[in-house]
Amino acid sequence: MTAFRTPNFRGWQVVVLHREDAGMRRLARQLERFGVTCRFAWPKLESLDPAVKAVFFDGDSGYDGLFPWQAGQPPVPLIALMRSEAPGRLEWVLAQGICSHLVKPVQSTGVYSALVLASHSFAQAQEQEARIAALKTRLRLRPEVIRTVLAVMRLGVFDEDKAYACIRAAAMERRMTVEAFCATADDVSLRALLPRRRQSSGLGRA
Amino acid sequence: MASGEIPLGILYSVTGTYSLIGQACLDGVRLGLEEVNRDPRYPFSFRPEIEDPGANIDHYLAFSEAMLRERGCRHIIGTITSIGRKEIIPIIEKYDALLWYMCPYEGFECCENVIYTGACPNQHIVPLFRYLLPRYGKRVYLVGSNYIWGWETNRTARELVQASGGEVVGERYLAFASQDVARLIEDIREQRADFVLNNLVGTSSYAFLSACHEAARSDPSFAPESRPVVSCNLTEAELDSIGPAATGLISTAIYFDSLESPESLAFRRRVEARFGAARRNSVYLVNAYIAVKLLAEAILACGSDESEAVKKALFELVLETPLGTTRIDSATNHAALRPYIGRVAADSSFKVVEATPQPIAADPYLVDFDARDFGAEVNRRSAMQLRVVK
Lengths: 206, 390
Known about the structure:
Number of strands of chain B: 16
CATH topology of the largest domain in chain B: Rossmann fold
Mean pLDDT of chain B: 95
Shape of chain B: globular
CATH class of the largest domain in chain A: Alpha Beta
Order of helices and strands of chain B: EHEHEHEEHEHEHEHEHEHHHEEEEEEH
Strand order of the largest sheet of chain B: 7-6-8-9-10-15-16
Oligomer: heterodimer
Number of helices of chain A: 7
Strand content of chain A: 5-15%
Distance between the termini of chain A: 54 Å
């Protein structure tokens, strides 16, 4: 078992998109205790400094166009500050792509876990998005794989499994996915994979 | 100007599984309170409002609410476990009162309405493991009572061990007050741990230490010189009940009764005068006493017992105490403290084996702590240790 590493936010900068009041000053003080500095902005965030690592925002008064990015696609973890539990407000907040929330009035308890949860789920969501994008690409290239398997079967007089194994080995050798390899393969490169005696006519792609 | 009687809530479990600690805390509060009430320098006196929740979590909230709502308390000194503390924080916040918490705890908390004068991880487990890992080895066994103190202190310990290239060879928990330690002993024997971190509390801890002592009779690997049991919360308050089984135990604390400083010697004389020569002094007694003194001085300075005013005055204070000088950091509400490491001698007193030269600021969220730096330092010290041995 590996130890859960103590989360550390030393040196982080965050933006608090909220009117600056006593509760928000309490939030800022608590953040300072984790080594985090914060800047207040309201009623609008014009641009996001690339150094900013997370954004807290007023979920009660937030509106479309509050953020300088496409709705629902925040570039950093978003943490909603909420008093209202009206479904309409929750719907709007969810549509912004929040990673965690804090109930107002903000107390010292809860800020740390909100930040830990938000940074963790943001990283997890990013990782998943990257995986999904890669899988989508592979899915899009599936017809290429089928075409290439058929070509190798024809060129080498192989059965389906052997043809696929041959393609997979070639892709691995080139450090490519099977799909990426198939997308670039033509008869010439496929013939080069096969023992001479097994060759016949192939893809018809030069 | 604050004058007349100021009600002061005192919430310690003097019955139940960790009653010895509760009694030490209560005695410390009493000593501080009597001194304040006798001293004409203070134009007020404290009226103690004492309740004993008996280590039963169901009583904490009701008792503290009664203190705050019915008896006019704006300050409560009390709670020992983190469960107890966390149970009453919401009500303390609701009444904008102050909780004076003076026990070592697992950190990761910084409430505006709590003053923390006990050690947090950078003041207990970190210095303890910095001392132990190079000297005793890096195969570590972790035990604890089944609640947040044991879980989190052991998690931090695991991080420290792994950062040093060591291995946690076992980790086990016992239910509160359980004395079922036989399996624990067998597992420690099999895993051949270099040392055992004991985060058990109260009667579970005494049963475990006694079983280790017993095991050492037939198995020399259990002798404290080869496989010490170590702790962040075992103090003189409990040594008499443990008896010879405590000999060789290594513990960290921000105060030991055996400290030879003039402040400490003077305090020990006052404890003896009040409670008799047989009474064991400990960090719990001292720190509860200091909490009362800090509160009294802060009220004297600001002329009010209102929590914001008291906090403001408190952060300006530099108080001479049995610990030396005590300050509370306004950034964290925590005390800067000097951790010591002591080994229990045959006469059942702690012999200090390492002392931090200066008080260190509390870092409750381990913001300025880097596990890799810690590991590098441990390994450097291990190399030095090897050279000394050769």
